[in-house]
């Protein structure tokens, strides 16, 4: 009904005003009221998801994003917010899938957008989180004692997190204080795990060393390690084959969205040498990335 759509629009604008002021709970409330007026508008769900991201209400964010995608499948923002929430609850496989979908929609959008670089960074973050889990399991398999100790640290961390959640649900602490405590115990847990791995790596460097790929070696389109990088006029490097394929579809830089042609690409010789040296030095595992 037109009246309801107008009311929903007014409530959305009111929510936007609260959001800009950092009043995320008030913004969420306004978006919720707008949804009651017009439950078929997918953009209202992404607005509320964004507010809920700020409030660290991860499952609510996921629910809103899935509903928004149900109403509008080519929904870049919904996939972007969904990936962030999935990553926050330690589901990197799902987060990577969602982030890649957001990135694909972004770079193939007919509308000018400045989100590509931000989404690209999220894709890489999700991929690294997925890799971190694989690395953790590999290292655990290499050393039973290390695995047992890491498991104990993780159990302690989860118990502390559960205790904070319980205190928050009972009203003993506020949402902001609870989130600060969760961040503190997470940082402490990650430091303990890091220190533990360092100690084992010193004692058994051949098997316990953490394997990582530097960001500058990774193509910004496929998120794989480059072999033949080329550089654009703005200094952004891509794998030659992937950027040429992209330019066949759209004559723009996929990250900056500035006009770009194949003739403007130049070999990035120093980066190519760095890629080749890294691949050669790590040939035993590099293709698992």
UniProtKB/TrEMBL annotation:
Keywords: Isomerase, Repeat, Rotamase, Transferase, Ubl conjugation pathway. GO terms for cellular component: cytoplasm. Residues 212-285 form the U-box domain. One of its GO terms (biological process) is positive regulation of proteolysis. One of its GO terms (molecular function) is ubiquitin protein ligase activity. Coiled coil: none annotated. SUPFAM superfamilies: RING/U-box, TPR-like. It catalyses: S-ubiquitinyl-[E2 ubiquitin-conjugating enzyme]-L-cysteine + [acceptor protein]-L-lysine = [E2 ubiquitin-conjugating enzyme]-L-cysteine + N(6)-ubiquitinyl-[acceptor protein]-L-lysine. InterPro entries: TPR-like_helical_dom_sf (IPR011990), TPR_rpt (IPR019734), Ubox_domain (IPR003613), Znf_RING/FYVE/PHD (IPR013083). SMART domains: TPR, Ubox. The keyword Transport does not apply. PANTHER family: E3 UBIQUITIN-PROTEIN LIGASE CHIP (PTHR46803:SF2). This is U-box-domain-containing protein.
